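Pilot study result, target chain (165 residues):
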Amino acid sequence: MPEISIVKAEREISKLKTMDFFTSIFRATTHMSDPIEVIANLEAVLDPQSVTDTDMDDLEEQQHLEEMARFLEGSSTQFKLYLWERLREAYEHEKVNFTPSVMSCRLKCIDLIVSEFNDPSYLDHSEDHRQFILLRAIRLVSYPSLCIDIHTDKLCSSRQLSHRH
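Predicted structure:
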């Protein structure tokens, strides 16, 4: 019977935890039954600085989130954009409706897209693939989800403006 390495076993356990975490996020964002839970989970991975040390009493949980952050660093821009868009949707949910964080998520998506354009590997892709990336970026950036209300100097969602014609 072959011996099992502790390091390999821990690595496999970490992979399973990561898969379980993202599966729960996909399930939660599909139904958006609890946007606050979605926000807590996604913020911890997408923006680890937002999680305070008091939130991270459990050393194992902290290590798990660090592993998730490393996993995310190596992930595709498309996957990262997907997660940031799910976080934005959670902030837009009627139970939360926190416009500044919606804007923050949009800006992070723009930042990811610009970073992708600045990546030297972008030019290594075929012209068709570069056009696809550009069209995806235009769709995300031009989506009129937020505006500045000139009359009140406040941020407002496009849904709120639909009745102001």
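One observation from the pilot: The chain has one domain: 6-161. A full batch analysis is planned for the follow-on phase.
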